[in-house]
Specification:
Elements (H helix, E strand, L loop, with lengths): L4 H10 L1 H25 L4 H8 L8 E4 L20 H12 L3 E10 L10 E10 L7 E10 L1 H4 L9 H22 L6 E5 L13 H21 L3 E5 L6 H10 L9 H6 L11 E4 L12 E6 L7 E6 L1 H4 L3 H14 L5 H10 L3 H17 L8 H9 L1
Parallel strand pairs: 2-5, 5-6
Antiparallel strand pairs: 1-7, 2-3, 3-4, 6-9, 7-8, 8-9
Length: 387
């Protein structure tokens, strides 16, 4: 049966006071943090670093990387205003022509109890746009079939989805590393990683899994620095609290876990504006990263909260930050609010319903030819017939 809107609205109306109380408490705390931000943004970065000294380096949340300058609320204005989309695209052509941008994304088919043998499919797709007048681009896919040995299962009750997610993550980072190796020394290209370079999500896993994600990202960061290819992690919806934690230390504010950097910074930001660059000093998983800082900035890319950008600090030290930020703005303009290169990589990689049916059919036919004992459940056979 379809969902019943009336039941949803009834539940929401019944629990309205709980939502209202949460909203009221969060807004009151947010205003305190915004006041602290306004005051601290008037202080020089040297003074801020001095005030942070008593706090352990890996517990500060953040610290300034570039000079903060005289920017109220740490908003660096882009001063980019156009009268039409054509004018903005003209600016894009001026900045991005001849600059190659690259992104990779993945998709997967998880193991299912409807197939008697544990098997999964992982596919990655990539897209490179050379931004040349002739419109030249490249895109392709690669896939991997995961066997029971890859999934490390002893029976179909074992939790195997995580193994699939790990393989996808590994394939995506390996393809980015390959790209940077192929483009070694390229001063006019940019690799996008769709997600955070600070893999805090891995803290929820056991040590082996956590170490796996850290190793993948550290290899990616090392490749970017070794081959001198700019790399940016693009997080459209960020719940990071690095600047919030820094403000908490500097302003003696109470901890409020519901306050995040993006809404804290959003007020007063116009399209194209950014924050100064900061070094990430987040507690937790960064302690497992070797030497080499991860920088971040927030960029106003659309009507919502600012997006978070993460990249290896060598890019700032090499004087590439401003150019890279403009290239990102260009990609956002082309994609009407989201980097076109990431969006296209996602469309290239995605596995649709028909792809899944093809995979299951090929798997069944192959197993029959190889005399393997593979059985499909009546449920799956029924679904296949209906579709």
């Amino acid at each position: 049966m379809t969902i019943k809107p009336s039941q949803i609205l009834n539940c929401l109306n019944t629990k309205r006071s709980q939502f209202e109380a949460f909203d009221r408490t969060t807004l009151a705390a947010l205003e305190k943090y915004r006041t602290a931000l306004a005051n601290l943004s008037q202080e020089p970065d040297g003074e801020i670093l001095q005030q942070l000294k008593p706090v352990a380096r890996n517990d500060r949340g953040a610290e300034p990387l570039e000079p903060l300058g005289n920017f109220p609320n740490w908003i660096v204005p882009s001063k980019l205003v156009w009268q039409s989309r054509e004018q903005s695209l003209e600016w894009v052509r001026d900045r991005l022509t001849g600059i190659a941008t690259f992104a990779v994304d993945g998709s997967q088919i998880y193991p299912t109890k409807d197939i008697s043998i544990p098997v999964a499919l992982v596919q990655i797709g990539w897209y490179e746009n050379f931004h040349l007048p002739n419109g030249h681009y490249e895109k392709d896919i690669a896939l991997d079939v995961m066997t029971p040995a890859d999934l490390r299962v002893s029976n179909m009750g074992d939790p195997v989805d995580r193994r699939v997610n790990m393989r996808r993550f590994e394939m995506e980072t390996e393809r980015l590393i390959q790209y940077m190796e192929d483009r070694a020394g390229c001063g006019e290209c940019l690799a996008f990683f769709d997600g955070a370079l600070v893999v805090t999500f891995a803290e929820a896993f056991e040590e082996d899994t956590r170490d796996f994600y850290v190793r993948c990202v550290v290899r990616l960061l090392h490749a970017s620095e070794k081959y001198r290819v700019p790399l940016v992690g693009y997080i459209d919806t960020s719940y990071a609290r690095d600047l919030t934690l820094m403000l908490q230390h500097l302003g003696g504010l109470p901890e409020v876990r519901t306050i995040h950097d993006a809404p804290l910074l959003a007020k007063g930001m116009r399209w194209g504006d950014r924050t100064p660059l900061f070094c990430c000093r987040r507690p937790g998983i960064l302690k497992q990263y070797p030497a080499g800082d991860i920088a971040f900035s927030y960029l106003k890319a659309h009507d919502g909260y600012p997006v978070r950008l993460e990249f290896p600090a060598w890019m700032y030290e090499a004087g590439l930050a401003e150019s890279v930020l403009d290239w990102i703005r260009c990609e956002v303009i082309i994609g009407s609010g989201y980097p076109y290169v990431i969006e296209t990589a996602d469309q290239t990689a995605v596995l649709r319903a028909e792809d899944r049916q093809v995979f299951y059919r090929l798997l069944q036919e192959w197993a029959e030819n190889e005399n393997l004992n593979l059985r499909l459940s009546r449920k799956m056979v029924s679904k296949a017939r209906r579709r």
